[in-house]
């Protein structure tokens, strides 16, 4: 039960990138969203993802799953 409690209380920003998908958890705001650019803010940084054919597959309160081809990722400290 303690693992479930830790999972539910987890507020750390997470970014998982696989071959054709991008999973983001605990983000603050979606700043920009186009088929070639995704810009997300977290508490400590701005994440700018460049690529092509981006599309949202899943969107929840603080979770988002994109599909598409990632070409470049920039992490900008705030």
Word description of this protein:
- The model has no long low-confidence stretch (mean pLDDT 88).
- The protein has a six-stranded antiparallel sheet, with no helix packed on it.
- With 78 residues, the chain is mainly beta.
- The chain has one helix and six strands, in the order H-E-E-E-E-E-E.
- The longest helix is centred in the N-terminal third of the chain and has 8 residues, at 2-9.
State the gist of this model.
Helix content is 10%, strand content 63%. The chain has 78 residues and is mainly beta.
- Global mean pLDDT: 88
Radius of gyration: 13 Å
Instruction: Report the order of strands and helices.
Output: HEEEEEE
Number of strands: 6
What portion of residues belong to β-strands?
Answer: over 45%
Q: Going across the major beta sheet, what is the strand order? A: 1-2-6-5-4-3
Biggest sheet overview:
6 strands, antiparallel
Class per helix and strand makeup: mainly beta
Distance between the termini: 36 Å
Helix segment count? Answer: 1
Unreliably modeled segments? none
Give the overall shape: globular
Portion in helices: 10-25%
């Amino acid at each position: 039960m303690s693992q479930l409690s830790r999972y539910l209380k987890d507020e750390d920003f997470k970014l998982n990138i696989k071959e054709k998908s991008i999973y983001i958890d605990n983000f603050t705001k979606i700043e920009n969203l186009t088929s070639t650019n995704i810009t997300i803010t977290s508490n400590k940084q701005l994440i700018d993802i460049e690529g092509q054919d981006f599309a949202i597959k899943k969107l929840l309160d603080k979770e988002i799953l994109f599909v598409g081809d990632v070409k470049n990722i920039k992490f900008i400290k705030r």
